[in-house]
Amino acid sequence: MIKKIIKKNKEEAAKTVVYILKRFIKKLLKRQQKVIIAIPGGTSVKIIFKLLKQEKLPWKQLHFFMVDERLVPITHKDSNFKLAKPYLSKANLHPFNHKKPIKDYKKELHDLGGNFDIVLLSAGEDGHIASLYPHHPTIRDGNEFFILTDSSPKPPKNRMSASKNLITRTKISILLFLGESKRDALNNFNNNKLNIKDCPAKIIKQIRNSYLITDLK
Q1: Count of Cβ atoms closer than 10 Å to residue 100 Cβ
Q2: What strands lie across the sheet with 2-6, from one edge to the other?
Q3: What is the span of the domain harbouring residue 117?
Q4: pLDDT, tens digit (0-9, with 9 covering 90-100), for 144-196
Q5: If you ran DSSP here, which 8-state letter would residue 61 be given?
Q6: Does the pTM of the predicted model rise above 0.85?
């Protein structure tokens, strides 16, 4: 079941995301020793990271993986990890090293249990999430963990992404549609005639605890 939350602006939406994250982190840690969280890049989530940094969280029990990444050095200006690192450095961070085999990133996650507990996703204007794009090989890929593509419709073409199957196995998902430019994507998400291949953001409908947060009325 998807819980849809409409806020008046991006700032209020970000506060809601942080509240949901805190609540589920606390809940999960009552029955497990660590929480694995997958995060995207992009300007929509930067404010979330800023707010999260201010919270008193059990940082040493939190592990952050990238739900997608551009194949650039982690110090590069286009790196999703570089965006997140200043705000999440108190936690256990797991950047993707584009010079290492993707199986190494799989092993890193596998050693911690093999699944995400929480995934934060930000929908693109075409309805893509992570680096899974409509009518593209990435959304059809059956890999259980991470995938690579050299034909991303959005530059740069070379990217890493959590697979559709890996995202689907997540316990809790939070999906963002923020800004007027995402209105068509939200409409496609709500269109029951379209499927996951048309709008990859619909993946979250397969996750039991899912939240859709938007500032679009």
Answers
A1: 10
A2: 2-6, 209-214, 172-177, 118-122, 35-39, 62-66, 92-94
A3: 2-214
A4: 999 999 999 989 999 999 999 999 999 999 999 999 999 999 999 999 999 99
A5: G
A6: yes
Residue type, position 193, single letter: K
Identity of the amino acid at 80: N
Q: Which residue has the tokens 């209105």?
A: 183
Comparing C-alpha atoms, which of 91, 52, 71 is closest to residue 152?
71
C-alpha 98 chain-centroid distance? 18
**Regarding beta strands 2-6 and 62-66, do their DSSP bridges make them parallel or antiparallel, or are they unpaired?**
unpaired
Q: Shortest CA distance to 84 belongs to which of 68, 71, 98, 99?
A: 68
Taking phi over 0 as left and psi of -120 to 50 as alpha, with beta for the rest, 42 belongs to left
Q: What is the CATH number of the domain that holds 173?
A: 3.40.50.1360
Contact 6, 214 (CB under 8 A): yes
At 203 the three-state DSSP class reads helix
pLDDT band per the 50, 70, 90 thresholds, residue 85: very high
C-alpha span between 90 and 34 (Å, rounded):
14
What gap in Å lies between CA 216 and CA 84, rounded to an integer? 25
Give every CB contact of residue 199 below 8 A, 6+ residues apart in sequence: 127, 134, 185, 188, 189, 191
Ramachandran area for residue 50 (φ above 0: left; ψ -120 to 50: alpha; else beta):
alpha
Output the six-digit token pair for 64. 């952050």
Q: Count the domains in the chain.
A: 1
CA distance 44 to 61: 25
